[in-house]
Amino acid sequence: MATNSLTLESVRHSLIRQEDSIIFSLIERAHFPINSPTYSQSYVSNSIHTFSGSLLRFVVEETEAILAKIATNFGLQICLYIPGEVDAGRYANPEEHPFFPEDLPPSVVPPHNFAKFLHPPAASININKDIWDTYINKLLQLFVAPGDDGNYASTAASDLVCLQALSRRIHYGKLVAEVKFRESPQEYEPAIHTKDRDTLMKLLTFEKVEEAVMKRVAKKAMMFGQEVTLNKDGNLGKYKVDPSVVSRLYGDSIIPLTKLVQVEYLLRRLD
Ligand SMILES: C=C(O[C@@H]1C=C(C(=O)O)C=C[C@H]1O)C(=O)O
Description:
mainly alpha; Chorismate Mutase, subunit A; binds ligand ISJ; EC 5.4.99.5; amino-acid biosynthesis; isomerase
């Protein structure tokens, strides 16, 4: 991450690229029906007696523990921020946030010196709990068909990829907010001093950009999710994930959560 050269254009470019990862992850997840035992506590606790939580939680916690061990190498990064403890060696990539930061094991590889672009209190912002709840209770039902095919492990693995892509995009709001603040600190400072969330929200909002995002993700969902056949009259008009739903996920959840991260970041920008 060449963070010192970040501009509004380059952070927007990254958000555009991340759209691809999010849409592909949704397409992969939509391949399975809802498979509700993946999210129920009883399914796992009946078989793994040492763990109380859903299969999805088990998969995410275990994966994060492995990623934390190799946190600063090979580009496989996870933010090792432990609440209450800002330790440069363990606070690794500021773009990654664990869903379960408690009890992560220490890294077994030497720390990488990530460029310090963000204001340090940014480390305390992690809204993955909201992202988790939104994903499970609101988003899944919108793009996944009802039903149960028994593929719970694959379902949880696909959910993990969706959650990581969403979390990365939403927390990228910290970088967006920092760039916006650096471009015109005098505009933001009064509202930061008075902790005026509404004004901060207005200042950082660009409606035209949001409209473009929502149109573009629908178009990408059409292109990435079309059924490809060799038959001339094929399956035109059939998509693996409904493009209008992808647009809605962005408009109703992903963009608002990214803006929430931006506001939270700006509120701490002068601490
Ligand atoms: C991310 C930005 O900030 C806001 C949030 C947006 C988003 O989440 O896509 C888009 C425009 C802005 O209203 C931006 O300005 O690019």
